[in-house]
Specification:
Strand order of the largest sheet: 3-2-1-4-5
Order of helices and strands: HEEEHEHE
Number of helices: 3
Structural class: alpha/beta
Helix content: 25-40%
Length: 129
């Protein structure tokens, strides 16, 4: 009827399955946990606001007319005239060049070269979209 020599077996497979599922959930959730500590920062001694430098807008029409911040320039003498005009501008400003798509690539590159030669380092070519 009852055999005392028989030893009970312990099946740990369900326990391992549950632990692996919990480990997978922990691994997925743990990178998303953000610890936040509220701190009060001290006030600085000099409270000077940073001023934003207005950009320099250069527009080249399909007729070859160049305008720099609504100031007209001729394409043929742009390099020399822009070098003089650039002395009144902040060289840390961003220069945005907008050109008609039907223009010759060389004309746009000559404007870009003149801007770089005048000392501007942050120059962008505008695109549509």
């Amino acid at each position: 009827m009852f055999d005392w020599d028989e030893k009970p077996e312990l099946n740990i497979t369900p326990l391992v399955d549950v632990m692996l599922v919990l480990l997978a959930i922990l691994m997925v959730i743990s990178p998303n946990i953000v610890y936040e500590e509220l701190i009060r920062l001290p006030k600085g001694s000099a409270q000077q606001e940073l001023t934003k430098i207005p950009p320099v807008n250069i527009t080249i029409s399909k007729d070859g007319e160049v305008t720099v911040n609504k100031e007209p320039f001729k394409l043929d003498t742009f390099a020399d005239n822009f070098a003089l005009f650039a002395q009144t501008l902040d060289h840390k400003a961003t220069v945005l060049i907008s050109a008609d798509q039907s223009l010759d690539y060389g004309k746009v590159m000559s404007i870009l070269g003149a801007v770089k030669q005048a000392g501007f380092r942050d120059v962008s070519l505008a695109t549509n979209g």
